[in-house]
Amino acid sequence: CETRPLNQGSRLTAWELSRDNIPVKTITDSGAAFLMKRGEIDAVVVGADRITHDAVFNKIGTYMHAVCAKHHEIPFYVAAPTSTFDATLSEKDVVVEQRDRNELAKCGDRLLMPDSVDAINYAFDSTPVELVTAIFTEKGAVMPPFSVDEILQRKVGI
User: Fold this and answer.
1) Which of 25, 53, 88, 132 shows the greatest Cβ crowding within 10 Å of its Cβ?
2) Phi, then psi, of 127 in degrees rounded to 5
3) Which string of b and e fits 5-14 if b means at least 16 CB within 10 Å?
C-alpha cells in the first residue's frame, strides 16, 4: 500500500522490493479491502516498529488490514527483526505518536483542506496478536501462541 500521508509504502517498500527483483504493485491504502474481497490478495505481509506480548505496532492502517484479512480468511504475517520485540510493555503502555496536521493538510506547498479543519494524524496503530498468523524474524518463523520472551531466547534458524 502507498502508506499515506508520507507514502513510505510507495517510496520505500516498493523501491526495496523492486531493487531485490521481487514483483510488486502499489495500491491505495483504502483499496486493500476491496482487493481482498475480489480475491486479488492471498496474503498480507507487514513490518513492525514494536511488538509487545499482546500487540504489533506498525504504520497506521496495519490494524485495518489485519481486520480485513481476518474477515476474508487471508493470512496476516508480520516480518520484523527481534530488535522490535519489547518484553517490558503491553499495548496499553505504548503511546502512539500523533503527527503534524500539515502532513494531511498540504502536499508540498499546495493546501488540500481548509485552515479551519483540524486533523487527527496518528503515525502508527496497534494490531492485537490474535489477528497475526505468524511472525517472521531472523530467528525463524513463530506461530501462535506468541511469547516475546521465548522468541527473544531462541537461537538463530530455529
Assistant:
1) 132
2) -120, 120
3) beeebbeebb
CA distances from 156 to 17, 51, 82, 83, 96 (A): 24, 18, 10, 13, 31
CA 16 to chain centre: 16
Residues that are catalytic: 49
Label the pairing between strands 76-79 and 134-137. Answer: parallel
Q: What is the pTM of this model?
A: 0.92
Residue 7 has which C-alpha cell? 507514502
- Mean pLDDT by groups of 10 residues along the chain of 158 residues: 89 94 94 98 96 97 97 98 96 96 92 95 97 96 91 80
The alpha carbon torsion through 80, 6, 129, 22 (nearest 10 deg) reads -50
